[in-house]
Design a protein that fits this description.
mainly alpha; about 190 residues; 2 strands; 6 helices; single chain; two-stranded antiparallel ribbon
């Protein structure tokens, strides 16, 4: 049985409780006091949550995947050992950098404001391109399985270091605009 749709004000949308009241009778109508939002109104915050904290991971995923392709162009189809070496090269770069920045894994990693991170990671096309180019250069210069390890290591290092420069640039821009940088105020 199809019921005709009834248009109701967005702020007070009645709904049935879904349960029969004790002792029988008809279901009660409850008014939902929460404001109702359209899909368009929800999209902005949804995109914001989706992008928050994912930009660097996304840039690195693109980098390491495309770098693999760049190495494969020069070195040909990898063997299983080459794949292991490639993965180890990527992980070694991040482990070494994290150990250095945290002084032997004893300190925390500093983060900037959301605005600095958003602006800095928006420039990630530079770090991605530099890292892929570096991986291709390594694969051209080195031969054998070691090329896979070194290419992933170098691509990872170049990506992180270039993105660090992008974040420094973003912080500089934010300071010039008198916008939040995530640093404590001087004084």
């Amino acid at each position: 049985m199809n019921r005709p749709r009834v248009s109701r004000p967005a702020a007070r949308r009645p709904r049935l409780t879904g349960r029969d009241p004790p002792g029988g009778g008809e279901r009660r109508v409850v008014t939902d006091e929460r404001p109702q939002h359209t899909a368009r109104e929800r999209l902005g915050p949804g995109l914001s949550r989706s992008l928050h904290g994912n930009a660097t991971a996304f840039g690195y995923s693109v980098t390491i995947t495309a770098s693999f392709g760049a190495v494969q162009l020069d070195r040909g189809q990898p063997h299983y050992v080459d794949l292991l070496l490639y993965g180890l090269g990527a992980v070694t770069a991040f482990s070494a950098l994290e150990g250095t920045v945290t002084k032997g894994f004893r300190g925390a990693l500093d983060v900037g404001s959301d605005q600095v991170i958003s602006l800095g990671t928006a420039l990630a096309f530079v770090s991605v391109a530099l890292a892929i180019t570096a991986a291709h250069g390594v694969a051209t210069a080195l031969h054998g399985s070691i090329a896979w390890f070194v290419a992933a290591l170098v691509a990872s290092l170049v990506f992180v270091l270039a993105e660090s420069v992008e974040l420094v640039l973003a912080q500089w821009v934010q300071e010039r605009r008198d916008e939040p940088t995530g640093d404590p105020p001087p004084g």
